């Protein structure tokens, strides 16, 4: 049987009486890269925050990294690398100082070794003295990914990690994600880019807080009777809009 790093059912969250995440099931096998797609405001960030233990769900059951994701949320949080949409590091500190600061926050016993390993892994060693604020968008994202990896998480939840990054840097970032998956790290990543969706092993597509499609890119395109992935999503969201969009 396939080992599931994420196995959660019925994930639900409402704000002001409106369900922004509505009974979402999420299964991600260990070492796989699953793309999380959907229009703006469809509930991706809210779902990711619940899965990593930062936000308490209204409903939902299941396990993340073998832990009860609701009752053991604090333990889940410690073992997940979560990369938020916005660059959250200190612009007036160098690359190395940023990583060292985070290692201190985690009270890592082998801080220096962990920082060195993260610098090497992400190809940041030669730039370690550069100020974070002076880096291009692509290098900033790489630093943010290095920061997520410091505590050696087995699961990465990445929220639009390459938004606004140029195509070459995005490609390099994705090569890195595939290397990490090759090491057995599981990745759930939200994106609006179709070329990135094509690089995921599987996709989950949501709109209005509900899952509209899941599977490989090829199976989603075939099931929607579409030309390509973008066309499939346009069709799916069009149908969803007819069915429950007005109520959402
Ligand atoms: N703390 C909050 N209070 C009230 N409403 C919220 C809160 N957080 C999110 N929402 C609403 O929930 C819905 C889903 O938001 P969410 O950020 O999860 O979407 P998303 O799919 O990540 O969007 P995007 O692709 O734009 O990042 C939106 O309508 C948003 O306005």
UniProtKB/TrEMBL annotation:
Entry keyword set: ATP-binding, Cell membrane, Cytochrome c-type biogenesis, Membrane, Nucleotide-binding
UniProt record, GO biological process: cytochrome complex assembly
Listed GO MF terms: ATP binding; ATP hydrolysis activity; transmembrane transporter activity
Pfam families: ABC_tran (PF00005)
Protein name, entry field: Heme ABC exporter ATP-binding protein CcmA
Top-rank taxon: Bacteria
PANTHER family listed in its UniProt record: ABC TRANSPORTER G FAMILY MEMBER 20 ISOFORM X1, ATP-BINDING CASSETTE, SUB-FAMILY H, MEMBER 1
Keyword ATP-binding annotated: yes
Keyword Membrane: yes
Coiled coil: none
Record-annotated ABC transporter domain positions: 6-233
PROSITE patterns for this protein: ABC_TRANSPORTER_1, ABC_TRANSPORTER_2
């Amino acid at each position: 049987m396939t080992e599931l790093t994420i196995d959660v059912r019925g994930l639900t969250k409402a704000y002001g009486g409106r369900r922004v995440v509505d009974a979402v099931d999420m299964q991600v096998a260990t070492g796989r890269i699953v793309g999380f797609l959907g229009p703006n405001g469809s509930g991706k960030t809210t779902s990711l925050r619940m899965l990593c233990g930062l936000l308490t769900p209204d409903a939902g059951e299941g396990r993340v990294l073998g832990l009860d994701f609701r009752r053991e949320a604090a333990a889940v949080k410690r073992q997940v690398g979560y990369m938020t949409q916005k660059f959250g590091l200190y612009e007036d500190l160098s690359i190395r100082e940023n990583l060292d600061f985070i290692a201190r926050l985690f009270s890592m016993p082998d801080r220096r070794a962990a920082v060195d390993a993260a610098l090497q892994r992400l190809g940041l060693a030669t730039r370690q003295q550069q100020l974070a604020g002076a880096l291009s968008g692509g290098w900033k994202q790489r630093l943010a990914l290095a920061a997520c990896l410091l505590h050696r998480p087995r699961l990465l939840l990445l929220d639009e990690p390459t938004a606004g990054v140029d195509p070459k840097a995005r490609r390099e970032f994705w090569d890195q994600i595939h290397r990490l998956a090759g090491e057995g790290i599981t990745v759930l990543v939200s994106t609006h880019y179709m070329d990135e969706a094509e690089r995921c092993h599987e996709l989950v597509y949501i709109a209005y807080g509900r899952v509209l499609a899941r599977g490989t890119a090829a199976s989603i395109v075939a099931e929607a009777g579409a030309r390509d992935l973008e066309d499939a999503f346009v069709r799916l969201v069009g149908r969803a809009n007819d069915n429950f969009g007005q109520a959402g």
